[in-house]
Prior knowledge:
The protein is of the alpha+beta class and about 190 residues long. The chain has one domain (about 1-185). The chain is built from four helices and eight strands; from the N terminus they run αβββββββαααβ. It has helices at about 1-15, 125-135, 140-150, 155-175, and strands at about 25-30, 35-55, 60-80, 85-90, 95-100, 105, 110-120, 180-185. The strands form two sheets. It has a four-stranded mixed beta sheet, with helices on one face. Strands 2, 3, 6 and 7 form a four-stranded antiparallel beta sheet that branches. Strand 4 (about 85-90) and strand 5 form a beta hairpin.
Amino acid sequence: xxxxxxxxxxxxxxxxxxxxxxxxxxxxxxxxxxxxxxxxxxxxxxxxxxxxxxxxxxxxxxxxxxxxxxxxxxxxxxxxxxxxxxxxxxxxxxxxxxxxxxxxxxxxxxxxxxxxxxxxxxxxxxxxxxxxxxxxxxxxxxxxxxxxxxxxxxxxxxxxxxxxxxxxxxxxxxxxxxxxxxxxxxxxxxxx
Length: 192
């Protein structure tokens, strides 16, 4: 509810400021209490990799083992209204609003399932200990996958669609009826 209240205050400010016949642009770079992260999209992906662990003495490999990890992870993509600012622009006829949102971020993945197997075992390798270590660092290891998904156009489009729906619904609840609401994220050109 706090996000709705703060957004209402921002919209009222824009509305009161836009009574003249010029385009009004308001920036909100500061933090707003209670206005935090808004999750816009999620992507679930499967990862399958094999890591080789070796036991060495000096430069000689005494033993090696393969550890296979299969993981199903969900990445959430969100805007951080507490950390980043946003901008609202209303045209002079008051029928079009452009919402310049904070950049999209990826959260650390949530693992739905993980499986570990040992295709090749080694005599001097503690596979279970190595597997625990891999699983402990799994979130950091696959974070690059979430960062790569941020570059995918379908993820950006889904985030834009969800934020447009959110802003449109909020405006309607507050009694603001715009013919067009455009949403863009910092770092990309506004949609036309």
